[in-house]
């Protein structure tokens, strides 16, 4: 993600903190209970305990994700009514592998009406608890088995009170912006990047609309006066990176490096004026490949939406941009191009290699800012050193406001910026700059290439990055990373003892 400079951070507000504590039942506990009571009373006990919102223990979003299962695939089906102020009819089918015995399971789903839930083809009871949909199957699910959950529901593009994000209403339809914690405003899911899955997305829309989603097309079916478009991902994806565009759009195709299919989605009426920007993508992909290795997915493209989001977003294989970024003459050409590269580089850093927890966000944004700045330097002569020196000056105040890069502060109520503060953008790119100064350019570049290759299609942690950097450089970097990623104050910049951070307690210039 990248905030556009004119907009004051239109980010989802922090969800109200829940008070109930997470509760899980381990198989051992279940067995121990069974020794003391008959099977019947175990079921009664399970049924009588109150449903509670659960999470996977993310420090910043405690109630995102759910324990007890891994999702392998989502099949999302949306029917667009031809108006973006009315709910879509939707069916979400989840294939998951249970990792513990479950007498019930939680999905994240907070906005939309549930009409029915089936588990393995049988109707199941369900209730709401906080932002969770708590499903109780007829028979408890056994650890180490496949289960299929089908939820018929509505998906409401009109935001609930205080919950921005999820569907974005555009001038001619809808797009999606789920980062960090808004996919469950759109569809029931295990809404945490640690549980990536394959996606099939079907969209039925009336004549005159075009629907596009992540991945490659897998079918177009016309029925009466509507069309159903099907898309399928070829690589696992985090829920926060889902994209569905419905609009009066054109899909523009071209070849990228090595025949990579590039397809962009633009308002049909603006296709001509936007074409010079679209034409830049293949060279940008080639530039990124020259830096970090092969593009990690089956396709790429930009979605230029007529909407004021206040940010651009790296939705997997199809990044979301505000159309105005390309038509507003106030933005210099080099700047717009560097923003395109920012979202493109996220396909490697953040999408293919996604964060294990949201505290690892700096690995996304630090790297995207890095390649954004490097591109601006190489293509437009905008000095990275100058940018990093300026970042150094601001770094202490960024850390004071948002926390150190790898231990960001939680989203605060009323702060729409959520966790997307400067500490994880230029503040984190600054830590990468320090690392390059410390281990040298050649090891740093090898680290970057190895990182995206090693963790491709997976999730990774800050500790994984630290370990790989130590291995590649043959150095003990423990103290270096502790200071740069977790320190309250910015450490001295290696090789630049003259760089000074401005004390956040004093005004600049004093
Ligand atoms: Zn970003």
Describe the protein's architecture and organization.
- With 510 residues, the chain is of the alpha+beta class.
- The chain has a domain at 24-247: Immunoglobulin-like (Sandwich), CATH 2.60.40.
- It has helices spanning 27-36, 39-48, 271-278, 281-292, 324-327, 333-346, 361-380, 384-402, 426-439, 441-454, 462-473, 478-486, and strands at residues 2-3, 69-79, 88-98, 105-108, 114-119, 122-123, 125-129, 132-136, 146-155, 166-170, 173-177, 198-206, 210-213, 216-223, 226-232, 244-247, 249-255, 261-267, 302-305, 311-312, 319-322, 353-355, 458-460.
- An eight-stranded mixed beta sheet has the order 6-5-9-3-2-12-15-14, with no helix packed on it. The protein has a three-stranded antiparallel beta sheet with strand order 4-8-7, with no helix packed on it.
- β10 and β11 (173-177) form a beta hairpin.
- The radius of gyration is 23 Å and the shape is globular.
- Residues 1-2, 342, 346, 365, 368 line the site of zinc ion (ZN).
- Zinc ion (ZN) binds next to α6 and α7.
- Residues 284-484 form the Peptidase M1 membrane alanine aminopeptidase domain.
- Residues 179-239 form the Aminopeptidase N-like N-terminal domain.
- Its cofactor is Zn(2+).
- This is Aminopeptidase N.
Number of strands: 23
SS summary, helix count: 12
Low-confidence stretches at least 5 residues in length (pLDDT < 50)? 7-46
**Nearest-integer average pLDDT:** 91
Quickly name the level 1 CATH class of one domain.
Mainly Beta
CATH architecture of one domain: Sandwich
Q: What gross morphology would you assign?
A: globular
Say which CATH homologous superfamily of one domain is assigned: tricorn interacting facor f3 domain
Give the DSSP E fraction (strand runs of 2 or more residues).
Answer: 25-35%
Main sheet record: 8 strands, mixed
| Backbone CA Rg | 23 Å
* Alpha-carbon distance between the two ends: 34 Å
**Helical coverage, percent range:** 25-40%
Small ligands present: zinc ion
CATH third-level topology of one domain: Immunoglobulin-like
Category by helix and strand content: alpha+beta
Query: Main sheet: which strands, in order across?
Result: 6-5-9-3-2-12-15-14
